[in-house]
Design goal:
About 30% of the residues lie in helices and about 15% in strands. With about 210 residues, it is α+β, with helices and mostly antiparallel strands. The protein is globular, with a radius of gyration of 17 Å.
C-alpha cells in the first residue's frame, strides 16, 4: 500500500510572516454529537479557534474530534503529536464527502481533498511552519452489509475498535458513511507511519476487530 505524500512546501522564506497563531480547540463538549453533522457537515471543525479575544471565555482543550464519535475515549490528544501531524489532524476536521455515491465512486473523487490541503497550507503558514515531505497512510474499507445484520453489534464493534486504535496512537482521522439503498458503505482512516504497522499486525494476527 503506497503512502500519501505531501511534499510541496507551504511556508517558504519569501512567504509573508504569520499574523496569528494556529487555532486552539474548544472543548469537545461544546460540539454536537450528532453522527450526520460530524460525518457530512464537518462539525468537528467547529472545535477550532482562531485567536479572537472572546474565545478564551469558552472551555479549552487539547483533545480533537477526529471521527463521528464525539466521546472522550475517541478523541485525539494533540499533545502526543509533532507539528505536521497536529496540523494535518486539524485540517482533516473539514473532511466530508462531496458526492452521494461515495460508497462506490473513486476514492480521490469522493471527498473535498483540495479544500483539506488548502486548509493545511493555511494552517502551516499561520503556524509559521515550513512543510517538508511527509508520508501518511490511508486505508479504505468498502463493504456491503447483509440484510439481517445486527446493527447494534456492528456499531459496538466499530466503536470499540476505534477506541483501540486511538489508544494505540497515530490515528489522525476515521470517517464512515451511511449505507446506501443496496447496503453498501465506505469507511476510511488516515494514519501516521507507526499506526500503519499496527494495522498490518492486526491483519497478520487475524485480529480483524481492529479493522471493523
Amino acid at each position: 500500500m503506497a503512502p500519501v505524500e505531501i511534499g510541496q512546501p507551504v511556508f517558504g522564506v519569501d512567504s509573508p510572516k504569520p499574523t496569528s497563531q494556529s487555532p486552539s480547540l474548544y472543548d469537545h463538549t461544546l460540539i454536537t454529537t450528532d453522527f450526520d453533522a460530524l460525518k457530512f457537515h464537518a462539525a468537528a471543525s467547529l472545535q477550532l479557534q482562531f485567536g479572537h479575544a472572546h474565545e478564551t471565555a469558552a472551555l479549552q482543550s487539547d483533545l480533537l474530534i477526529t471521527s463521528p464519535y464525539n466521546d472522550p475515549k475517541h478523541l485525539l490528544d494533540l499533545k502526543t503529536l509533532d507539528t505536521p501531524n497536529q496540523l494535518l489532524a486539524k485540517a482533516l476536521t473539514i473532511l466530508r464527502p462531496i458526492r452521494d455515491d461515495y460508497a462506490t465512486a473513486p476514492y480521490t473523487e469522493s471527498f473535498n481533498w483540495q479544500a483539506v490541503f488548502n486548509f493545511l497550507r493555511d494552517l502551516a503558514q499561520t503556524n509559521g511552519y515550513r512543510w517538508e515531505t511527509q508520508h501518511f497512510y490511508v486505508v479504505v474499507f468498502r463493504s456491503r452489509l447483509q440484510a439481517d445484520i445486527d446493527k447494534q453489534r456492528l456499531h459496538d464493534l466499530d466503536a470499540y475498535s476505534h477506541q483501540e486504535a486511538v489508544a494505540s496512537g497515530g490515528l489522525l482521522k476515521y470517517w464512515f458513511g451511511t449505507k446506501d439503498g443496496e447496503r453498501r458503505n465506505l469507511a476510511t482512516c488516515e494514519f501516521i507511519f507507526l499506526s500503519f504497522y499496527f494495522i498490518l499486525r492486526a491483519v497478520a494476527d487475524g485480529d480483524t476487530r481492529s479493522l471493523a
